[in-house]
Amino acid sequence: MIDLIQTRRDLHQIPELALNETETHDYLLQVIAQLPQTWLTVRTIKVLPTAILVHITGSQPTQTLGYRADMDALPVDETTELPFSSTHAGISHACGHDLHMTVALGILAHFATHQPKDNLIFFFQPAEESHSGGKIAYDADVFTGDWHIDELYGLHDRPNLPAGTIATRIGTLFAGTSEITIDFTGRTGHAAFPQAANDMVVAASAFVTQLQSIVARNIAPTASAVITIGKFEAGTIRNVIAGAAHLEGTLRGFTQEDIAYLKQRIQELASGIAKSYNCDVHVTLEQGGYYPVVNDAAITQDFITYMQTAPVDFERTEPVMTGEDFGYLLHHIPGTMFWLGVGDTTELHTSTFNPDEHALQPAVNAMIGYLTHRMQKGSRS
Ligand SMILES: CC(=O)N[C@@H](CCC[C@H](N)C(=O)O)C(=O)O
């Protein structure tokens, strides 16, 4: 058994950005090394050096169940003032992946001491917030041969859902996303002589404002989409007109068709802005992006039925516009993603995000119970 709260706090103190999760990787390996190794095989992979895979060999295996936990943090400067706050300046676990890893370790620790009937694979996955670590691993054929997974599970923590409550739905849970970057090039000049310059603060601001009309006027009101520009950089000083602007954002929709249409309209608006403001506008659209998270109908129905009778609080939920590269994995491997309530705190991705640790033990217990039930039930039923 591991001390869930201490483990979560240790991980919370060492947040690292996507693909740089080296300290986290070493910490996880050290915790895993302290578990009984009888049925365990630990594997690292070249394509994703900070990832860790753990295989637990079942006693009478007829299938392999997978559990994934993401490892990366965000460039958000934590302001919780918790005694175990981030020790890495400007980076924090503002999305709660420290909890995700801790729950995975809790489940892993149980099955390392109680041999499961079927095989289990734990995937500690780097790069969920960007760079799609799940896709990198899947496309590199990591889940083949002995590492093939028949069904896959994973959670995301959710503020404003009571701590320890589990929530999910059949079908689409999270949106598909795509990152966008837009660079504007005009002409710098003196603040007093705008006629001799070409101000990219004005052009980029007009573009950001017009972007919102895409969601309002090009996507059906009965569907949903989001375009958010989270980063807007321009200029150097108050009295110099900015000759360039750089925007970074993300777009979201529930279907690949809506996402493709958002991309097309963004390109069209950018061409319009380039003409009206007589500047150069370069749009970079992420190819592929994150797939919507779509929960398998049969597996998720069984998950819901189990959770409704298990000693855990369960709620059905509606889809939301968060993204998750678990969507790519679920596109290839059937399974279920679910929310874990972490109580009354500020939203995900905020500097004051402070999830309730009372969520940890119920999540571990629920998943140990569910995976055991799934093994008794047999494959694909
Ligand atoms: C759960 C969560 O917050 N996930 C992130 C995933 C980011 C997806 C991608 N890099 C993008 O921003 O388009 C989210 O922001 O929803």
Automatic annotation (TrEMBL):
Residues 179-277 form the Peptidase M20 dimerisation domain. It comes from Lacticaseibacillus saniviri JCM 17471 = DSM 24301. The keyword Hydrolase applies. Keywords: Amino-acid biosynthesis, Diaminopimelate biosynthesis, Hydrolase, Lysine biosynthesis, Manganese, Metal-binding. GO terms for biological process: diaminopimelate biosynthetic process; lysine biosynthetic process via diaminopimelate. InterPro entries: AcetylDAP_deacetylase, Amidohydrolase, Bact_exopeptidase_dim_dom, Peptidase_M20, Peptidase_M20_dimer. The active site is at residues 70, 129. Belongs to the peptidase M20A family. N-acetyldiaminopimelate deacetylase subfamily. GO terms for molecular function: metal ion binding; N-acetyldiaminopimelate deacetylase activity. Catalyzes the conversion of N-acetyl-diaminopimelate to diaminopimelate and acetate. The Mn(2+) ion enhances activity. It is an enzyme of class 3 (hydrolase). This is N-acetyldiaminopimelate deacetylase. Pathway: Amino-acid biosynthesis; L-lysine biosynthesis via DAP pathway; LL-2,6-diaminopimelate from (S)-tetrahydrodipicolinate (acetylase route): step 3/3.
